[in-house]
TrEMBL record:
This is histidine kinase. Keywords: Coiled coil, Kinase, Membrane, Phosphoprotein, Transferase, Transmembrane, Transmembrane helix, Two-component regulatory system. GO terms for molecular function: phosphorelay sensor kinase activity. The chain holds residues 370 to 648 of 652 of the full protein. One of its GO terms (cellular component) is membrane. It comes from the Bacteria. It is found in: Membrane. Residues 41-266 form the Histidine kinase domain. It comes from Prochlorothrix hollandica PCC 9006 = CALU 1027.
Length: 279
């Protein structure tokens, strides 16, 4: 983008010169393109369940008398499932757009034991139904990390939820957390590594980066109605907000491990520059 500005002579009202401002708007254009692509994807994704709901209601309305009780129930149950899917989609889209606004989040010391416990508790029933073992291995010396509790809970929930979707019966899902060595220099932040691993179907190398893109879903897989294709985009966004990055290692047919490093919350007990604490 180029802007021309005339510079006037204060006293004589003459044009003294012309100033040219050049501004690189490549990123702005890219962001706008990404936004319209997203809106078009969202509209497409919303249209499918809406169309299904409308068709089921129309059929019930026009031909309800010709259907037996069981058929009517089935139609209603499907319309209900589609409504749930629509709700999930709208919630995920709202979560993403909230994350992408410039809103600042409140970061506090987050106890990982508490967050992991809560995550496992809320997925335990689902795991039991599917015959999958849910376990945790948290280092006993774990200190709190700097983060937003609710956002981190969402990261764990999305990752464990995916692991449950893509792991066959008899499999195992594990959340591990351990401190990463010592700080690079006195006073420098220390990190905690968090891993969520499964013994599921795995992800091909060529898909491993794309799975974090919005609405990307690995092709040729039977996808249940559950997924929105936004879960990992939300995860990446939240982890970015925590000044960290999402990583994964995966082998088809063996399993997948997602991991991230979060900054440890400096505790009062941490000696600074080796000076005696006096306590
Ligand atoms: P979805 O709502 O479809 O799960 P996500 O963004 O959470 O969307 O995930 C994108 C895609 O990445 C999934 O559809 C799936 O194909 C793949 N994926 C995510 N997690 C795993 C996993 N633990 N094992 C295998 N594939 C996975």
């Amino acid at each position: 983008r180029m802007m021309l500005t005339t510079v006037l002579d204060q006293q004589k009202d003459h044009i003294r010169g012309v100033a040219i401002t050049v501004q690189d708007i490549t990123r702005e254009v890219e962001l706008n393109e990404a936004k319209s692509q997203f809106i078009s994807n969202v509209s497409h994704e919303l249209r499918t369940p809406l169309f299904n709901i409308k068709s089921f209601i129309e059929t019930l309305h026009d031909f309800g008398d010709e259907l037996n009780e069981e058929e009517r129930r089935e139609f209603l149950a499907t319309a209900n499932n589609e409504t749930d899917r629509l709700t999930r989609l709208v919630n995920d889209v709202l979560d993403l757009s909230r994350l992408e606004s410039d809103r600042t989040y409140h970061f506090t010391p987050v106890e990982l034991t508490q967050a992991v416990d809560q995550t496992l508790r809320s997925h335990q029933l689902n795991a039991k139904d599917k015959g999958i073992e849910l376990c945790q291995d948290l280092d006993p010396d774990l200190l709190p990390v700097r983060g937003n509790y609710d956002l981190l809970l969402q990261v764990f929930a999305n990752l464990v939820g995916n692991a449950l979707k893509f792991t066959p019966a008899g499999g195992r899902i594990m959340i591990r957390a351990y401190p990463l060595g010592v700080a690079a220099s006195p006073g420098a932040p220390q990190y905690v590594r968090i891993e969520i691993s499964d013994t599921g179907i795995g992800i091909e190398v060529e898909d491993q980066q794309a799975i974090f893109d919005r609405f990307f879903r690995v092709e040729n897989r039977v996808h249940t109605l559950e997924g929105t294709g936004l879960g990992l985009a939300i995860v990446r966004n939240i982890v970015d907000k925590h000044h960290s990055k999402m990583h994964l290692v995966s082998e088809v047919g063996v399993g997948t491990t997602f991991w991230m490093d979060l900054e440890q919350y400096p505790s009062d007990e941490t000696p600074i520059c080796g000076s005696p604490s006096g306590r």
